[in-house]
């Protein structure tokens, strides 16, 4: 057993759930966490976001799970030291039965899993089969816009979850299943929907963690099964650069003391999302990715998101955490668009719509530039240490 394990860590299972931007990872992980909590498991979740601003971690926390959010980079290529530190803290202070890791959509999930395996967390720790989610409703568009990158996520998976099947015509599903299976013949292919946590979801969970409920041997997937992979030289590659995705994130404090009602927040975020979408379409008329807006009025949070050029904004309203102050966050990651052009499109839209509504805001300061860190983090250990220092202690909660 390792020194870390001897010092009190008791993580039993580690699950990495990857997939391209907008594949439904956060919703799936929330459903997985609820499922495991109902089985009496203590769950912790690590969320990785691109850029300074974390959004998904906030959403997951609202559902009662403790999260660690590693921002300013992609775990697989720039924050390995930070990931190790986070897992060590979780093991010692929270002592989860199950640790789930949600990498950013422009990471290579198998590299993150390999890094966890190399941490020697103890003989009692089991690394679950690697899960990659695919947005079935956007599959042909992903293969057009980011084919090489998406393929590299797919071929390393042990379980491929075709997600959002509720948005696919039933007649197309068997064809899609066959196409995905052909890309990775060794993987188990399952159908998923965030709206369905019934039998299909139960089978999905049994594939990941057979010990939660015993299943027939023929359906089990073990961590020791040989995985298809990419060469050693490719594993050290910057996944963000390889994805061809431009990303920009920002956080704003809302200056006005007047109440920002949920209805106004809904109108504002919808108008803003549509404005950003129009400007992004001029940069890439057939973009895929993920644009997320997160407006917290102190009582409720309105979240808007789109994942592809033809999609209308999707809205969720979540209760704010206690003591929340009015805040606006945006995270954008778009295929085949330069970062500076995306940044200009986002910032000009935010300024225009908030000024139009007469709502004052100022940009929150984060003393670290993601793009610069990615250029230099492999050469400068100081950059890694800066990321580590932003990882704070966590107080566990038994679900």
- Structurally, how many domains make up the residues? 2
CATH superfamily of the largest domain: P-loop containing nucleotide triphosphate hydrolases
In CATH terms, what is the architecture of the largest domain? 3-Layer(aba) Sandwich
Broad CATH class of the largest domain:
Alpha Beta
Shape: globular
Order of helices and strands: HEHEHEHHEHEEHHEHEHHHEHEEEEHEHH
Proportion in β-strands: 15-25%
Which whole number gives the mean pLDDT? 76
Largest sheet: 8 strands, parallel
CA-atom Rg in angstroms:
20 Å
* Helix percentage: 25-40%
What count of helical segments does DSSP give?
Answer: 16
For the terminal residues, how far apart are their CA atoms?
A: 27 Å
SSE class: alpha/beta
| Number of E strands | 14
User: What is CATH's topology name of the largest domain?
Assistant: Rossmann fold
Architecture overview:
The two termini are 27 Å apart. Helix 5 runs parallel beside helix 16 and helix 7 crosses helix 8. The strands form 2 sheets. Strands 1, 2, 3, 4, 5, 6, 7 and 8 form an 8-stranded parallel beta sheet that branches. Strands 12-11-10-13-9-14 form a 6-stranded antiparallel beta sheet. The chain is of the alpha/beta class and 399 residues long. The chain has 2 domains: 237 residues, P-loop containing nucleotide triphosphate hydrolases (Rossmann fold, 3-Layer(aba) Sandwich); 141 residues, Hypothetical Protein Yjia, Chain: A,domain 2. It is built from 16 helices and 14 strands.
């Amino acid at each position: 057993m390792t020194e870390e394990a001897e010092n009190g860590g008791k993580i039993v299972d580690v699950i990495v759930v990857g997939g391209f931007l907008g594949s439904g990872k956060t919703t799936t992980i929330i459903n997985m966490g609820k499922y495991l909590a109902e089985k009496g498991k203590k769950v912790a979740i690590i969320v990785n976001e691109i850029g300074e601003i974390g959004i998904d971690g906030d959403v997951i926390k609202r559902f009662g799970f403790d999260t660690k959010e590693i921002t300013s980079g992609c775990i697989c290529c720039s924050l390995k030291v930070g990931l190790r530190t986070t897992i060590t803290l979780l093991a010692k202070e929270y002592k989860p039965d199950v640790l789930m890791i949600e990498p950013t959509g422009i990471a290579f999930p198998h590299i993150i899993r390999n890094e966890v395996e190399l941490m020697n967390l103890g003989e009692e720790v089991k690394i679950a089969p690697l899960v990659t989610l695919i947005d079935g409703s956007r599959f042909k568009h992903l293969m057009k816009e980011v084919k090489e990158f998406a393929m590299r996520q797919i071929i390393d998976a042990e379980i491929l979850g075709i997600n959002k099947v509720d948005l696919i015509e039933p007649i197309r599903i068997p064809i899609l299943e066959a196409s995905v299976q052909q890309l990775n013949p060794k993987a188990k292919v399952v159908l998923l929907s965030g709206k369905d946590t019934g039998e299909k979801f139960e089978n999905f969970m049994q594939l990941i963690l057979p010990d939660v409920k015993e299943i027939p041997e023929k359906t089990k997937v073990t961590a020791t099964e040989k995985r298809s992979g990419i060469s050693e030289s490719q594993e050290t590659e910057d996944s963000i650069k390889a994805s061809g995705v431009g990303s920009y994130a920002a956080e704003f404090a809302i200056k006005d003391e007047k109440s920002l009602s949920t209805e106004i927040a809904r109108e504002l975020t919808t108008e803003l999302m549509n404005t950003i979408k129009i400007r992004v379409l001029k940069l890439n008329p057939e973009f895929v990715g993920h644009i997320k807006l997160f407006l917290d009025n102190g009582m409720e949070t309105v979240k808007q998101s789109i994942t592809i050029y033809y999609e209308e904004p999707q809205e969720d309203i979540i209760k704010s955490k206690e003591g929340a102050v009015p805040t606006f966050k945006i995270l954008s990651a778009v295929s085949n668009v330069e970062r500076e052009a995306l940044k200009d499109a986002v910032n000009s839209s935010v300024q225009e719509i908030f000024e139009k509504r007469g709502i004052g805001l100022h940009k929150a300061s984060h003393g670290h530039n993601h793009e610069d860190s990615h250029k230099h983090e492999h050469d400068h250990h100081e950059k890694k240490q800066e990321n580590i220092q932003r990882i704070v202690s966590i107080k566990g909660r038994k679900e």
